[in-house]
Write a structure and sequence with these properties.
About 30% of the residues lie in helices and about 25% in strands. With about 180 residues, the chain is an alpha+beta fold.
Length: about 180
Amino acid sequence: MIILIKPTKEYEDELRAFIDEMIASGDTHINGSGAYEEYPTFEEWMKYLDSYKDRRTIKPGSDRVEGSQWVLVDDEKHRVLGMANIRHYLNDYLLREGGHIGYSIRPSERGQGYGHRQLELALGVLRKLGLTKALVTCDDDNVASYCTIESCGGVLENTVLIPGETKPVRRYWISLE
């Protein structure tokens, strides 16, 4: 079954394999990974994730907000298919360009509908938190991502060029009601 779970030690090797595959495919910043690629060990990454589970523990002035990390898995094959980082509310930075959900699908698993499934499940998490709409963004040239967002009900608000960036960002709102 394809499910969205919190990261667990049980999936540590699969999570590292996911990150390695993403990097090998040319991704230097892995959307939705909770910056796992920046941490040498699973334990250090989990400690980092713990630092933004509760808004009271987030350092003032940080771009971070309270959020949760999720992993899309095929639990029958014990395979990590994707990762999603869910922000429980938006600050100015996330409202401009990051949105409520960052996500990615393992390169070898793309084109099979997993992005749509993962985004649907992530939207369900936001619904349970009581949100009525979600902002989801992607680079303007990421056709697979914007098709996924649109297939989940995303309505394009605008496309913006973020200062210091070279690619425009598409900003979509999805109703959760």
